[in-house]
Specification:
single chain; 485 residues; alpha+beta; 6-stranded mixed β-sheet; 14 helices; 17 strands; 44% helix; 23% strand; binds zinc ion
């Protein structure tokens, strides 16, 4: 394939030879083609804009100002009448699909929770598809681009085209020397007729590249004149209008796909910290330091050991919202859900210096199913060894600490579970010591006798002979039995 330089002045006064610019066969039509060309960095910007859709708009403006453009009446044979069509389809269709995949990936990345370890998330699949598609698209576009007639330079005076038929270049040279010798040239219609080709309306009309009339020719031209560098002009005109339509379609398609996803999932989860299997998303005023503390605490929790968990932390007026996804099979289990209030109380005590924790039981997308405000009777707490003692606002922390210390010394050596939970409450002059006990021990008289003795010891050693009741409770601290004096 050869290269030819054509001059503006020539194109204004000459007709190009009536042979196909692509293959050298007799031409049957003349297509008004607008070529664009720009310096290397402008082309690079256009390429990057494919990957970063935001830059696309910058590229549009830069393109409109810096790319040089030139209309050329290109003679073509029947076989090459749609010479640039395949490239246009690959490029613009590909760009539209790529933009859609890219936008979807970004949005999914923001809203989807992480899947269990070892599984690829929906976001991952979209990201994979985007990259794969980009790679798949680049090859045909690059190959097609090297096979079409395209400019290698455009200046104010001339255009240099490559991938042009040798025959065409020879004829242009011949005609140039003829013109220099002052030989008479044939009219366009005559020449095409002589060449044996059918004269298309577009060719029979005015071939003037500056022709701007709103005619049928103009309309037909606008359908056929996109080229790889012909991004739509910002200022309108037939190409600008088409570009605007393409952009609108891509935008609309993105909206149609993304809006329902956002509506269903409730938007982004915020920033993320990860400690081992624990992910904490933090948003709405919660800080990274707070999220880090929570993640470190959850990681130590023996109940959650080994499980991958994603929770969310938000700031509220007087404390925090702790949002936790609940497995489907437990979402209606009242025991499990009420147990979350103890998780909230412990997080308040161990992580947030007693700030109020509102627990939200959520689905897998961190959408709230049920809200649990802090439970007043276990609002505060102290820990001593294996013993934890919850207490309400009307109990002094020092009293709770004293009870915890006593219980830790008397029960600490027992082969007990990891933690024994108590609650200290105050009813007038009476101290209520609530203790979580297994249901089966309530039937054992020996155990009950031991617990009565323990009540007496606590009354003497912790509350200086005050009135103490021992409340035996289930593991949600609901009272099952009361041991009085
Ligand atoms: Zn041809």
């Amino acid at each position: 394939m050869a290269t030819v330089t054509l001059y503006r002045q020539e194109l204004d006064t000459w007709d190009l030879p009536p042979i196909c610019m692509r293959c050298g066969e007799p031409a049957t039509l003349v297509r008004q083609k607008r070529f664009s060309w720009g310096p290397g960095w402008v082309l690079l910007l256009l390429f990057v804009s494919v990957i970063l859709p935001l830059l696309f708009w910058v590229a549009l403006i830069v393109n409109a100002r810096l790319l040089k453009k030139m209309w050329v009446p290109v003679p073509l044979c029947e076989r090459h009448r749609n010479h640039w069509l395949a490239l246009q389809v690959v490029l613009f269709g590909g760009l539209a699909i790529l933009a859609l995949l890219f936008c979807s990936t970004i949005v999914l990345w923001g809203i989807m929770p992480e899947p269990p370890q070892g599984e690829l998330s929906l976001t991952g699949w979209f990201c994979f598809a985007t990259v794969t598609f980009l790679v798949i698209m680049v090859f045909p576009a690059a190959i097609l681009q090297t096979t079409v007639i395209r400019p290698t330079q455009i200046t104010d005076q001339s255009i240099t085209l490559t991938s042009v038929a040798k025959e065409f270049v020879h004829r242009v040279r011949e005609e140039r020397s003829d013109a220099r010798l002052g030989r008479t040239r044939l009219g366009r219609s005559d020449r095409l007729a002589r060449a044996g080709g059918e004269v298309e309306r577009i060719a029979a009309g005015l071939p003037d590249p500056r022709f701007q009339g709103a005619s049928a020719e103009e309309a037909e031209r606008s359908v056929n004149d996109l080229h790889i560098m012909d991004l739509p002009e910002a200022r309108g005109g037939p190409l600008g209008a088409r570009g605007a339509i393409i952009c609108c379609l891509v935008f609309l398609a993105a909206v149609v796909v993304l809006v329902p996803i956002i509506a269903v999932t409730g938007g982004g989860h915020g920033s993320k910290v990860q400690h081992g299997n624990i992910e904490v998303f933090y948003t709405e005023g919660a800080t990274k330091a707070e999220a880090d503390r929570l993640a470190a605490y959850l990681l130590k929790d023996p109940a959650g050991a080994g499980h991958r968990r994603s929770v969310q932390l938000k700031k509220t007026a007087d404390g925090y919202q702790f949002r936790m996804p609940i497995k489907k099979e437990f979402q209606n289990d009242q025991k499990v859900l009420q147990g979350l209030q103890f998780d909230g109380a412990r997080i308040s005590r161990d992580v947030f210096d007693g700030a109020a924790i509102e627990v939200h039981a959520c689905d897998q997308h961190l959408k709230t199913l049920k809200t649990f405000p802090p439970r007043p009777d276990v609002r505060y707490g102290v820990v001593d060894g294996k013993i934890e003692v919850f207490f309400a606002a009307n109990v002094e922390k020092a009293d709770a600490q004293q009870l915890a210390k006593y219980l830790a010394t008397t029960l600490g050596g027992e082969p007990a579970p990891a933690r024994i939970s108590f609650k200290l409450a105050r009813r007038g002059a009476i101290w209520e010591v609530h203790m979580v006990v297994a249901q089966k021990v309530l039937q054992d008289p020996a155990v009950i006798a031991d617990l009565r003795q323990a009540r007496n010891d606590i009354a003497v050693n912790v509350f200086k002979g005050g009135s103490v009741e021992m409340h035996l409770c289930d593991n949600l601290l609901n009272v099952v039995d009361v041991l009085k004096e």
